[in-house]
Amino acid sequence: MEQLPVCPHCAGEYVYHDTIHFVCPDCGHEWAEESVAESDEKVFKDSNGNVLQDGDSVILIKDLKVKGSSIVLKKGTKAKNIRLVDGDHDVDCKIDGQSFSLKSEFLKKA
């Protein structure tokens, strides 16, 4: 069975083929088969849906407890010069001189 692409607009995975177009039922986006040949590069998005890139600055949107420590990263803390990585925690950054791996869903682009 042929592997269908994900939606280039919302990254939805429930895409179907409609004779000459691919259709995403989540956002209603339609695109031609020729535009499917995009790179398989992962897109990292913040909590608001903004695309994150290496070197961006981000702000925490909620208090986060650091596992195995008594440290709590407070809401509103800014992290500069982030680095995007593959994995469960997809953002590496330094806050107050300490390195942390965070999930992009708890961040917003500054």
TrEMBL record:
Task: Name all Protein YjdM C-terminal domain ranges.
Answer: 45-110
Sorted alphabetically, which SUPFAM superfamilies does this protein's record hold?
Prokaryotic SH3-related domain, Zinc beta-ribbon
TM stretches of this protein: none
Q: Which InterPro entries match?
A: YjdM (IPR004624), YjdM_C (IPR013988), YjdM_N (IPR013987)
Task: Fetch the Pfam families from UniProt.
Answer: YjdM, Zn_Ribbon_YjdM
Q: Indicate the segments forming the Protein YjdM N-terminal domain, all copies.
A: 3-32
The UniProt entry, under PANTHER family, shows: PROTEIN YJDM, PROTEIN YJDM-RELATED
Q: Which protein family is it in?
A: Belongs to the YjdM family.
Q: What is the recorded name of this protein?
A: Alkylphosphonate utilization protein
Q: Which organism is it from?
A: Conservatibacter flavescens
